[in-house]
Amino acid sequence: MSRNIIFAANWKMNKSVRETPDFAPRLKAELANAPKVEFEVVIAPPATHLMALGPALKSTGFKLAAQNCGQGKSGAFTGEISPVVLKELGCEYVILGHSERRHVYGEKDVLILARLKAAVDEGLKVILCVGEKLEERKAGKTFSVIETQMGILNGLNLGAQLVVAYEPVWAIGTGENATPEQAQEVHAFIRKGLGSAGASTPIQYGGSVKPENAATLLAKADVDGFLVGGASLEAGTFAGVIKNGLQSRT
Ligand code: PGA
User: What is the tally of structural domains in the chain?
Assistant: First the structure.
């Protein structure tokens, strides 16, 4: 079964609102000579920038995403952003369980599950991030960590509303990406764990993806795209990731 190839830009807490609208037309222009392979582009700016970016995406076909969402429709959740409002602002996707949310802000699986249910109820697609820390990999615990993080999906059927992103924590923002073989091994494990949904669920890789390593990573059978941080901030560099990656699929 052919799966969507999805390239998602995770801007994290970068860029000003003013810098935001320019990015989409620039990326569109950079992709004019991309290999003729079907793919999807998703951009996740800071929540404060969604209103500025949404209209700029209209003519590009790129999809809008949020970096997190609240665990209910509305209510006493100081600092959170309702998935209802994300839909209102034109988001199609929301990233959940990013390692910075898990390890800097202490988000646990139970909270990530509550956020996921709220997002899915509003019709948002979820990019669920999973990944082991360096000490966990060294201790041979990679698969058990992934299995636990993926466990929140047990009993749920998200269908086309689910994308998984494998992001080894030791590879995020470090310049040290997982090797294509390391990525493939975990992606295959995740796909198997998804059971019958596995064949159609896109699994992205994330962690120091750049134009130089995009082709060898995307050449792997179970790598269906990327979640890109640092290399997504500049349109030319992000386009380089996309074009080099797609080259491996031609
Ligand atoms: P990076 O971040 O590409 O800067 O390593 C990836 C991510 O955190 O999604």
Answer: 1
